[in-house]
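Extended Data, panel c. Modelled sequence:
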Amino acid sequence: MKYIITLFLLIIAFVIMGVIMKNEPGMVLIYFNDKEFQTSLIVLSLIFVILYTIAHTLLKIIIFVIKLPSFVKKQNQKIAVNRLLKMTENGLIAMAEGNWIESEKLLKKYIKHNSRPLVSLLALAKVSHEQNNHQKRDDYLRQAIIQNPQASLAVGLTQAELQYSHNQTEQAQATLNRLLQENKRHPVVTKRLMQVYNKTHEWQKLFDLLPIIKKNKILSSARYSAIYDKTCIALLQQSNIDYNKFEKIWDNFDKNTKNHAIIFKSYIMRLVSFGQMLQAYQKINKYLQNNNWNEDIITIFGTLKVSNLKEQLHIAESCLTNHKSSPALYLTLARICVKLQLWGQAKSYYSQNIYLNPTAIAYKEQGQLLEKIKDDNFYESYKKGLEKITT
């Protein structure tokens, strides 16, 4: 394009010169080696332009001929790279489609002709994994680290992910622990390790990992709270621990955790399963005194077998001040009154409970009370309780 523009400008210049030199063309005399050459100025200028054009063209041709081998080499390399990329693309497509044999065949060809085959090696590891060839999978992963030592984290995460997906939880845990030592508090590694601990029910290890998860904000607040609650409850509900171990676990919880209703409820239920009725009674009493409240916990309080029933009733009645609309509280009061044989109060509390929240269990217990005190309305209570069950 530049050449055409230059030529066009020269033509215009010659036309202008021709018009100017129409009457006075000028004269150029060249004397060389006893020979003379005479011509007009415009003709000489035209000769110079022609010679320049020929020389420039020849120079371009010479440069092109010199650079031709390098150009051909680069073009061949470009074609080869495009072919390899296409092969890799087809291999990845085959992998996505579940055609493991074809995928492995295509990806292997790419590795043989490429000095940076990390992506293909990771893909081949997955292909081998899907074919249950774990030895081959690990070989490809080792090759990936050898080819690119700086990608050890990416390779390790891939290995852990594959191990985890194939229920090789012990191997996945070992891989992730190694990665966590090498990459302190790495969010992805920490999250994957959390998933492994959760799956293997290693609650103490998961509980020890939770502070790191919280500090680094690896999970959303809602997700973290759910995992934290689940872990604490699972720790308390472990079947292979004795009472002393159970209490040590509870003592390791902070104050907010101990006052969290769902966790406190799990703690109380486990105390009851250990036969620690008095301990459960005292803990609930302290919980209530600290202005904590939970419908399930006050319900459990009414089922506890304690020696001082009058004190139990007094504690429950003191809650009426702030919880007059609690169905669970009236049910608890009714049950304690039945134990104390305070039939009139029990009847009144059952009625209030049913008014607020008519349930089958409340109707059943009311019917049992009415039948015990020879009240003919017991049949009606049983009838309504059955209707609640069947509807």
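The chain has a mean pLDDT of 86. This feature is highlighted in the accompanying rendering.
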